[in-house]
Amino acid sequence: MSTHTHDSVAYWKECLALIRNVLIVWFxxxxxxxxxxxxxLNSVSVGGYPLGFWFAQQxxxxxxxxxxxxxxxxxxxxxxxxxxHED
Length: 87
What we know:
Elements: H1 3-36, H2 38-41, E1 45-46, E2 49-50, H3 51-81
Antiparallel strand pairs: 1-2
Helix pairs in contact: 1-3
Keywords: Membrane, Transmembrane, Transmembrane helix
Pfam families: DUF4212
Domain Sodium symporter small subunit: 10-85
């Protein structure tokens, strides 16, 4: 296996691991906090609303936006590491 092939395999392995991790956070915030764990979270209040309801209606949107910026930064770091970044 050539060095180039090894680098591309490692690059895609890191990219897919990052995507997997972002999707896990996305799932836990939207489905987990907004639906599955909502009854347990509703004992805490944020802005006068139960936390489970807040996650389902607003909190997950804020987290999704943060995930976009986090993903962009981390994928940029991976691109630089493997010298496939854009200038």
